[in-house]
Specification:
With 199 residues, the chain is α+β, with helices and mostly antiparallel strands. The chain has seven helices and four strands. It is globular, with a radius of gyration of 17 Å. It starts with a helix and ends in an 11-residue tail after the last helix.
Length: 199
């Protein structure tokens, strides 16, 4: 029997995942910011995990668990994992500082060259850009997210493209064509209002 707290937490997690799915549909797939995303999204090969971690230490435990789970899983069932952590590393600088630790986790689990990490954050900012530069929205998401990808799948997807190096440039052109206000509105429309950390 589940307690009311468990049910509330599960309901909140479902809503957060729905928000991330909306972001994928609206921006990532809708604007074709990642040409690899649509196929695995349609096939339901993306694993969505909502971490309740509130510190980098507990988030690392969740990350290590999900890295190993993905490595041990059948790619036809789980092609990649989105580890969503609404309550940890909410400041972009903290998030950015955590990323090298994620690479260390890959080394420790002997998964370097097998799995790689991509990063998304509500305040994502590329080096040498202004905060309101529309190009940052290629990596902005409703919540902080660590994206776990299989390296061989990424390599195959890249090899299938005529000019993979042009993806980022094309994304900037797409986002500029939409305009900052429109892209901000698209992202805002996918986000829930204030999920609360579990008690």
């Amino acid at each position: 029997m589940h307690s009311p707290t468990d049910q509330t937490s599960a309901s909140s997690d479902d809503a957060i995942v729905d928000s991330v799915r909306a972001w994928l549909e609206t921006l990532v797939i809708g604007l074709n910011l990642c040409p690899f995303a649509k196929a695995i999204y349609v096939k339901k090969q993306i694993r969505y995990v909502v971490s309740h971690a509130e510190t980098s230490r507990t988030l690392m435990l969740d990350l290590e668990r999900e890295l190993q789970l993905l490595a041990d899983s059948n790619p036809l069932e789980i092609e990649s994992t989105l580890l969503i952590h609404p309550f940890a590393l909410k400041e972009f600088q903290d998030f950015n500082n955590f990323l090298p630790l994620g690479d260390c986790a890959l080394d420790a689990l002997k998964l370097n060259g097998i799995i790689q990490l991509a990063s998304f954050h509500p305040d994502y900012q590329f080096h040498d850009t202004e905060r309101d530069d529309v190009s940052n929205f290629s990596n902005r998401s409703p919540y902080p997210i660590l994206h776990l990808l299989r390296e061989d799948s990424v390599a195959k997807a890249v090899d299938s493209l005529a000019n993979p190096d042009e993806i980022f440039e094309r994304n900037i052109e797409t986002l500029n064509a939409r305009g900052l206000a429109a892209v901000e509105s698209m992202l805002a429309s996918t986000k829930l209002s204030g999920p609360k950390p579990p008690a």
